[in-house]
Amino acid sequence: MHLEEVSSLVAKWDKSEEAIAAAWLHDVVEDCHPTNLTFIAELFGNRITGFVSKLTDDKSLPKQRRKELQLENACKKSPEAALVKLTDKSPNVGTLAKSPPANWSLERRLNYIEWAIAVINELP
Predict the structure, then answer these.
(1) 11, 46, 81, 102 — which has fewest CB within 10 A?
(2) Whole-angstrom Cα distance, residue 48 to residue 68?
(3) Residue 57 a catalytic site member
(4) How confident is the model over 43-89, as pLDDT tens digits?
(5) Cα separation of 58 and 30, whole Å?
């Protein structure tokens, strides 16, 4: 559902097939092991893989460092990667408002929203 929502939002703003593909693939390296960027490049080419690589967190890093890097690197995104990042954060925040994880306190939810807004504000 999330990937469909993100790709649908990207399609509304950018008809580029590459941006839409990146939206569908933006979480795949993080969430679908053993998928990696090499595999994506073989299937989808270097341009889409470039977008996906700019949207993929290094899961070997601590969570707080990954969040810091998203904030630091937001301003370096291509227009396509920035759009995917924006359309990814929007449903994430919406989900927190409608049906937050049971184990997330109000403080944690508000911290996430504050961080997401900070990332979005740094996008080109």
Answers:
(1) 102
(2) 24
(3) no
(4) 999 999 999 999 999 999 999 999 999 999 999 999 999 999 999 99
(5) 8
**Set 17, 31, 58, 72: catalytic member:** 31
Nearest to 14 by CA among 58, 78, 67, 63: 78
CA-to-CA distance for 117 and 67, rounded, in angstroms? 12
Give the contacts of 118 (CB within 8 A, at least 6 positions apart): 71
Q: Which of 5, 18, 27, 30 is catalytic?
A: 30
Residue from 113, 91, 74, 115 nearest 9 by CA: 91
**Which domains occur in the chain, in start order?**
2-122 (1.10.3210.10)
